[in-house]
Amino acid sequence: MKILMMKKKFLKLICPRCRLSQITFGKASTWLKCENCNKLLIKPTGGKAKIKAKIEKII
Ligand SMILES: [Zn+2]
Q1: Suppose 12 and one of 4, 29, 50, 57 were both cysteines; which one would form an S-S bond, judging by CB atoms 3.0 to 4.6 Å apart?
Q2: pLDDT tens digits for range 8-29
Q3: Domain that residue 54 falls in
Q4: Where are any strands of DSSP class E within 1-59?
Q5: How far is the CA of 6 from the centre of ligand 1 (A)?
């Protein structure tokens, strides 16, 4: 069995409003807004990030 290193995980998010895709860290601790339409995509809530966008891919 292979042990995967999951330390550096990137998420590919799709903005639900304008469908622009953006790449961000899985452990987001900062606010992330869509570059295009300014919609809030990630909201950090006490250690856990609340992701409001659609996750298309985990890289
Ligand atoms: Zn957008």
Answers
A1: 57
A2: 688 899 999 999 999 987 665 7
A3: 10-58
A4: 10-14, 21-25, 32-33, 40-45, 48-51, 54-58
A5: 28
* 40 CA to centre of ligand 1 in angstroms: 8
- Residues by chain with Cβ below 5 Å of ion ligand 1: 15, 17-18, 20, 34, 36-37, 39
Asked whether residue 2 is domain-assigned, the answer is no
pLDDT in tens, 27-58: 657 789 999 999 999 888 877 778 889 989 88
Number of domains in the chain: 1
d(CA 29, CA 1): 32
